[in-house]
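Agenda item 2: aspartic acid complex prediction
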Amino acid sequence: MQVFKFGGASVKDAESVKNVATILKRHENIQKVIVISAMGKTTNALEDVVNLYIKNDEKHLQYLHEIREYHQMVCDDLFGTNNPIQHKIFAIFDRIEHFCSSNNSKSYSFIYDQIIGVGELASTTIVSAYLNLNGIQNIWLDAREMIRTDYAYTDAKILWKETENLVQDKIDFSSTHTFITQGFIGGTPEGFTTTLGREGSDFSAAVFSFCLNADKMVIWKDVEGVMNADPKQFEEAVLIPKISFEEAIEMTYYGAKVIHPKTIRPLQNKSIPLEVRSFIASDKGGTLIDAFEERIEYPPIIVRKANQVLMHFSAKDFSFIAENHMQEIFGAFATSRLRMNMMQNGAINFVAAVDNREEKINETVALLEANFSIKLTSDLDLLTIRHYNEAILNSELSNKTRWLTQQSQETIQVLYRDTY
Ligand code: ASP
Ligand code: MG
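Presented output:
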């Protein structure tokens, strides 16, 4: 069996949904689970709803209404006046409105997760119905009843054993060839919705692949496959046809956006190959991520992270930065869940580059300012190049002022600022 994942761009309107059906017709005889994201930019729009609702702004209802209309419009285009799922779509959105009017919780993360998953519930309901009407018989499943998680709303952790049992229980190919379910969302035992982090549908697909011992997972994207750089930023970006699991983990760790970073480990653990293919040019080869025996020659792989803040710490008692200081600093970062993208220590200074997440930075500073003098430098960018060479490094950093460099045999990271 195989697991397919279709992202938001692949189901953004009626035309796109029809294209998904065309692709699936070509894979009719394969047993598969299809994991689908919210349509287009729905998740972003739902984040706006959450933010308005939290501020007690009545406009959240209007925003939610616009999202409902968008789905209604896709339904109109797909089904005409004979929409077989009208009542279901209404029920999905009504439930969210009801949640908003009856909720007593003040927890942002809890509220976020109860609202945000509506995008996936609506998209899968629409796609499943369209496929059933067009000769691709399938069963719709609620991912919240299979992906069992802890209570870390917005960043929930998978409870693997429970999830494996539930997935194997619910997915039985003797009844159909094709199951459709949501990415991104999971559930607690009490039935509250949790989410796995933004862009988490790739990871959901990997969880299903793992639990079902899939032969293969396929991510269908609007790009040809995995490129060595973001083609929007780098004109000469090339497709990488083969990538080892290890390399894919490294790439995504440093911020390559093409696959969610948590996706690869569960696949690697069971040696399940992952294909990244284009839903536009679906006949093209794409990228295969697998356990390759042979050594692969990679082009330089370039990842840029904009809007970095460099945090400088020195001990207030004028002592050298020693292990006890490191322990305190790392402890504070762990507590505020602020990730260090790059770090370096010297005699009296420890520095770490982080994403510009104001709340988390403030929380970290608050935890450490009693014992450390702290200085922040902002407006920096972080360039990471795997398999670098001098030529690529110089061309990527021409007209830039280098602030901090760190390199190993395979990877170089440079924190820099544009020189005006
Ligand atoms: N719809 C969610 C998001 O946009 C999850 C996903 O697309 O992977 O983050
Ligand atoms: Mg998405």
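Discussion summary: The pocket of aspartic acid (ligand 1) is lined by residues 7-8, 37-38, 43, 119, 183-184, 198-201 (CB under 6 Å).
Owner for follow-up: CH.
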